[in-house]
Amino acid sequence: MSQAEVRDDTGDLDRLQAAIAATGPMVVAFSGGVDSGLLAWVAHRVLGPGRCVAVTAVSASLAPSERDDCRRLAHAWGLRWLEVHSDEGSRPEYVANGPDRCYHCKSELMDRLLPVAEAEAAAVALGVNLDDLSDHRPGQRAARERGAVFPLVEAGFTKAAVRRAARELGLEVWDKPAAACLASRVPYGTEVTLGTLARVAAAEEGLRRLGFRQLRVRHYGDLARIELGPDDIDRAVAARLEVVEAVKGAGYRYVTLDLEGFRSGNLNPAPGG
Questions:
Q1: 168-181, pLDDT tens digit by residue?
Q2: What predicted TM-score, i.e. pTM, was given to this entire model?
């Protein structure tokens, strides 16, 4: 079946279960989002905890709140779960933050997951969906080169289909906003440092405490550019003093609000660029 034919499908849980069963024992890279959440939940039901483990890679690029979510969800869902520590910041190519940064980040992730997979006699599975294939995602190449499998793609799931299936199964993450790694807030060519990632994490956490859910804080040195969902822009303007306080409290000197609103991956290179 061609990619175009698969894209017309909405994803099917029976096909997902079949893809998981055909793969066999599985190590699921679990970030706590809807894609990896659906995959981990279904894989544990199909394979059982003896043949499936959800693994969260902990590093400076993972927001502390996301790590807490992974722990909480794993307990609530009865997942066999463990953490591994990754150190993408030790890779010069990652720190340099070129357009292929995600390749080096995912290489680090796979290097941490593969020993777990070897011990489990299992495949590494990532929560990649069909929509991800059309975005700038060099990390997918690194994962494929190292033998990772993408069951959601095999089963024809788009992002919308993932959310529908998660909602039907009663998984609370069904409407959770996408939460890419913190390094995605840093423009290409600006070095990714521990200090920068900590500032971004603190600024975004401050905005979440104000009730904003879908957001990004883009880092430009002393300036933070805030992206919010379109429905939240007026609310942010009305609460501008609290917004400014939250972001400046993270160490930024200037605070700006992007009137175009939230756009996932808007720092990625333009197609053909």
A1: 999 999 999 888 89
A2: 0.88
